[in-house]
Amino acid sequence: MFRYILFDLDGTLTDPKIGITTCVQYALKSFGIEEENLDKLEPFIGPPLTDSFERFYGFSKEDAKKAVEKYRERFSTIGLYENEIYPGVREMLDSLSGKGIRLAVASSKPTVFVEKILVHFKIREYFSVVVGSELDGRRSKKEEVVSEALRQLGVTEEEKSLCAMVGDRNFDVFGAKQQGVVPVAVSYGYAQGNELEEAGASFIAKDVWSLSQYLMNGEKKRYSFFEPFAIRVKELPQPEKTSFLRAFSVIAPILIYYVVNNLTIFLFAYFVGWLAGKQGILLELSVWLSGHSTLVSALMKFVAMMLGAGILIPAFLQENPVIFPEKNCQKDIPVIICLGISAAVFANVLFFLLQITGSFESFSKVSSSQFSLPVWGGIVLYGLVSPLAEELVFRGVVYNRFRRQYPFVIAFLASAFLFGIFHGNLVQALYGFLLGLLILWLYEKYGAFLIPFLVHSSANIIIYVLMGTKSLQNVIMTIPFCMLSGLVTVALIVCILRKRKENLH
Question: Which active-site residues does the annotation give?
Answer without folding.
Answer: 8
